[in-house]
Each structure stands twice: as C-alpha cells, then as structure tokens.
Amino acid sequence: MPFDAVLFDCDGVLVDSEGITNQVLCQMLNEAGWALDYAQCFALFHGRAVRDLRERIEAETGQPLTEAWMADFYARRNARLGAELQPEPGAPQAVQALHRHFAGRIACASGGDRHKLDLQLQKVGLWPYFEGRIFSGQDLPRNKPFPDVYLQAAAAVGVAPERCLVVEDSVPGSHAGLAAGATVIGYDKSGHYTPAMRQAGVQHFIAHMDELPQAIAALARALA
C-alpha cells in the first residue's frame, strides 16, 4: 500500500466551521470600515488565517490590526462555534474508519489557531482520534501555503511525507500538502473550488467525506 498515514485539514474538512467563522469576520470587518459582503470575505479568507491578510485588512480599514481586535474576533468566533458547530457530514465515520485502518496514524494539520482546533474537535467528538497529533500552522514560522505544518504532522506520526495522504478543501492547503511531498485528495462538496485546486496540482477529488475511505483504497490500488 503506498500510504501509511492520513493528514486532515480541519476547517471545512472535519468540521463545518467556515461559514460561522466568516460570518463573524465579515461583520467585524464591516464594523471596522471595510465594506465587503460575505461571498467576498469567504473567497479572500478561505484557507487563510486572518493575520495572513494583515496588510490588506489594514489598507481597507485604515487602521492597524491590533491584538485587542483579534482577541475580540476570537471571542465572538469561539462563542458562535461553541454554540453552533457541527461536524462536516460524513467526517466522523471517515475518521473512525481511517483511524482503525491506519492503526492511529492520522493527524490534524490546520492553518487555524490551536485553541480553535481543540475547541472544534472536542465539540464534535473527534478529539479522541487526534489527541496528541493536532498541529497549527500558526505555531510555526510559516503557515499554509508553506508545507511546514504537514511536515510536522508527518514527522509526528512517524511516516515519510511521500507516504502520507492529505485531505484538503482549499487552494492554500493544497499547495501546502503538495509542497510537503504528500498526495492530496481535494474535498469539494460544492464543486466550486475544484478547478482552482486542480490548477494547484490536485488530481483526486471527493464530494462527500463518506467517500474518503473508498477513495483512498481505490487510489492505493491504482498506485500499487
């Protein structure tokens, strides 16, 4: 079998969080003076940390991105996530099956902040499958689209990146997984991001997380 581990992105892959987070972010950016709608906000920040767009935010609002503003964003975002968050449909079943199949060699490697990762995985009941193998790109010198967080996750599960399979839903995350040397499966339930992820180099896609174990098995057979 060509794969020995699976490395999951979190937002939009394991948990259905991106709508909640971007609603809070869009509202706060408008309050700060940047008149953008939800669709524009989602397109700009999909797969990216807020701090990664610091210069754009400061240019559009005309004010610095302060730690106080970020703390307020985290508090408002976390309150909504704690009240409303649900797992991505099919993700719990896929995680359980792959945790068993790969003897625990799965990890969560996200561009989000570590507090949010812990909150989300605990909220939807996935924490036990990833405990001790949860990584945030914000804890490293470089976040996605650089490969650092996936290289860290691969090292933690003791598997060469080339024998890891990454599950991603964004272009920056796809770049990170591919740059690490892993094989990337793109998860795109709407089909909206498939062309951009394909252009980034992703060749394999699923539209529902329930499909993931079968897709990995089929890919392994094709590459054997």
UniProtKB/TrEMBL annotation:
Q: Looking at the keywords, is Nucleotide-binding present?
A: no
Which Pfam family, any one of them, does this sequence belong to? Answer: Hydrolase
InterPro entries for the chain:
Beta-PGM-like, HAD-like_sf, HAD-SF_hydro_IA, HAD_sf, PGP-like_dom2
Family the entry assigns: Belongs to the HAD-like hydrolase superfamily. CbbY/CbbZ/Gph/YieH family.
Q: Which cofactor does it need?
A: Mg(2+)
Q: What is the lineage of its organism?
A: Bacteria, Pseudomonadati, Pseudomonadota, Betaproteobacteria, Burkholderiales
* Keywords attached to this entry: Hydrolase, Magnesium, Metal-binding
- Gene3D superfamilies annotated for this entry? HAD superfamily/HAD-like, Putative phosphatase, domain 2
Stated name of the protein? HAD family hydrolase
Q: Select a single GO molecular function from the record's annotations and give it.
A: hydrolase activity
